[in-house]
């Protein structure tokens, strides 16, 4: 695979050849380099063996479906993933997020909407990278609240000293909640700051991401860290902070 400096590399895994051709042309006009795979197995192999800035992953595909690809990549895989789901299928959306996808977009979609989602994810990655650099240059690198330690320099999280692996989206949500521990953060605020979009009715993306964080904490601490405040948002409990 040929790499181009200053251009973001995207892997598109989708068995729709016509859609893939359209997206390759459109995203090339926006300054991206796109490589396509038309089944889940070859997409999984390429995701493992090459470096990409983002993966666009369809759900329904031959050989391996999108969920099976997510499971195979595992929680340690760092490249952000945008799931392409069937329109109106909330189960697919929730399942994709639970398996580690950073966001989803329902088909059919407008090209500009896809571009906005891609840019939002890449912007989140840039913010995290900047936080890491600031930490490495002597700015405050760690935050510990209620036995959860977040280290921006190494982009690591520990729960009662046990290492926790989060997606980029989960990491940024946790950062905001911990930075404002003891304060209620509205879901609308999290959606705008993290997903770069207005919270829409029936959009459970933030709920699922917070649920993933809780699930990953639970084996190491059964005590609640993030409280849901009905009708208001989420509260990171102060507990024993330092």
Task: Explain what the structure shows.
The chain has about 240 residues and is an alpha/beta fold. The chain has two domains: about 10-120, Rossmann fold (3-Layer(aba) Sandwich), CATH 3.40.50.2300; about 140-235, Orthogonal Bundle (Arc Repressor Mutant, subunit A), CATH 1.10.10. The protein is about 40% helix and about 20% strand. It has eight helices and twelve strands. It has helices at about 15-30, 40-50, 65-75, 90-100, 110-135, 170-180, 185-195, 205-215; strands at about 10-15, 30-35, 55-60, 80-85, 105, 140-145, 150, 155-160, 160-165, 185, 225-230, 235. The strands form three sheets. Strands 2-1-3-4-5 form a five-stranded parallel β-sheet, with helices on both faces. A four-stranded antiparallel β-sheet has the order 6-7-8-9, covered by helices on one side. Helix 2 runs parallel beside helix 3, helix 4 (about 90-100) runs parallel beside helix 8 and helix 5 crosses helix 6 (about 170-180).
Q: Give the strand content.
A: 15-25%
Q: Remind me, CATH topology of the largest domain?
A: Rossmann fold
Q: Pairing-aware structural class of the strands and helices?
A: alpha/beta
- How many β-strand stretches? 12
Q: Rg, please?
A: 18 Å
Mean pLDDT equals 88
Low-confidence segments, given as residue ranges, are none
Biggest sheet features: 5 strands, parallel
How far the N terminus sits from the C terminus, by CA atoms, comes to 47 Å
């Amino acid at each position: 695979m040929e790499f181009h400096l200053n251009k973001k590399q995207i892997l598109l895994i989708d068995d729709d050849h016509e859609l893939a051709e359209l997206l390759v042309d459109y995203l090339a006009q926006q300054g991206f380099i796109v490589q396509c795979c038309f089944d889940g197995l070859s997409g999984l192999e390429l995701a493992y063996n090459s470096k990409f800035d983002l993966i666009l992953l369809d759900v329904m595909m031959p050989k391996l479906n999108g969920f099976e690809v997510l499971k195979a990549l595992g929680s340690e895989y760092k490249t952000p993933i945008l799931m392409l789901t069937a329109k109106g299928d909330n189960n697919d959306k929730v399942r994709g997020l639970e398996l580690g996808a950073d966001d989803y977009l329902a088909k059919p979609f407008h090209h500009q909407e896809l571009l906005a989602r891609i840019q939002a994810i890449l912007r989140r990655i840039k913010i995290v990278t900047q936080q890491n650099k600031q930490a490495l240059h002597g700015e405050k690198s760690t935050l510990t609240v209620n036995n959860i330690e977040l280290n921006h320099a190494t982009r690591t999280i520990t729960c009662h000293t046990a290492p926790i692996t989060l997606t980029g989206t989960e990491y940024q949500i946790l950062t905001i909640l911990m930075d404002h521990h003891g304060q209620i953060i509205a879901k609308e605020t999290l959606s705008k700051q993290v997903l770069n979009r207005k919270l829409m009715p029936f959009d459970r993306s933030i709920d699922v991401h917070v649920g993933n964080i809780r699930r990953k904490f639970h084996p190491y601490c059964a005590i609640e860290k993030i409280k849901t405040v009905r009708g208001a948002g989420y509260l990171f409990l102060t507990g024993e902070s330092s």
